[in-house]
Amino acid sequence: SLNCFSMIAGYYTALERTQFFDHCDDASLRIWEANVKVHEAGLKLIRPGARCSDIAKELNEIFYEEGLLQYRTFGYGHSFGVLSHYYGREAGLELREDIDTVIEPGMVISMEPMIMIPQGMAGAGGYREHDILVVTETGNENITKFPYGPEHNIIK
User: In this structure, how many other beta carbons lie within 10 angstroms of the beta carbon of residue 145?
Assistant: First the structure.
């Protein structure tokens, strides 16, 4: 797992990516690809008018279909502040099933699905992709601009 902290477009943010060294076994690849599928769906769902709880429920459905929902660790994202991801973070802007906040232009929100497969199971380990989005009038702008997924992050 790559976990970095830096300033991106004035926001102090985390950059988190799943990575493998040299190769990725079939079980891990399937899980990783499922997490990327949820991540990409979430990137499309974050837009003005979307409700946080609806986004979480739709992403839960993908993990459920993949047989991985029970391994989800927490919500799918949250707001960000200008000093760090804690200062300026609003409890009412978490991408969870119990948060009914409606997303508006100008909000800064992460998309960061994560699943943890227990030790001893095929594909054991943590999988996480994390991007920061600025909500625009028509959708969002991803300001992370760092590649994710198996095609970019199996380090040879």
Answer: 11
Q: In degrees, to the nearest 5, what angle opens at C-alpha 65 toward C-alphas 25 and 149? A: 40
* In contact, 114 and 128? CB cutoff 8 Å: yes
Q: Quick one: tokens of 32?
A: 């990783």
pLDDT in tens, 110-152: 999 999 999 999 999 999 999 989 999 999 999 888 899 999 9
Distance between CA atoms of residues 67 and 120, nearest Å: 17
Report the phi/psi class of residue 37: left, alpha or beta, with left for phi > 0 and alpha for psi in -120 to 50.
alpha
Terminal-to-terminal C-alpha distance of the chain: 15
Tell me the pTM: 0.89
Gap between the Cα atoms of 79 and 77, Å rounded: 7
Contacts of 119 (CB under 8 A, 6+ apart): none
Contact 129, 149 (CB under 8 A): yes
- Under DSSP, is residue 23 helix (H, G, I), strand (E, B) or coil? coil
- Structure letter (DSSP) for residue 142: E
Distances (CA, A) of 92 to 12, 109, 111, 130: 20, 12, 15, 20
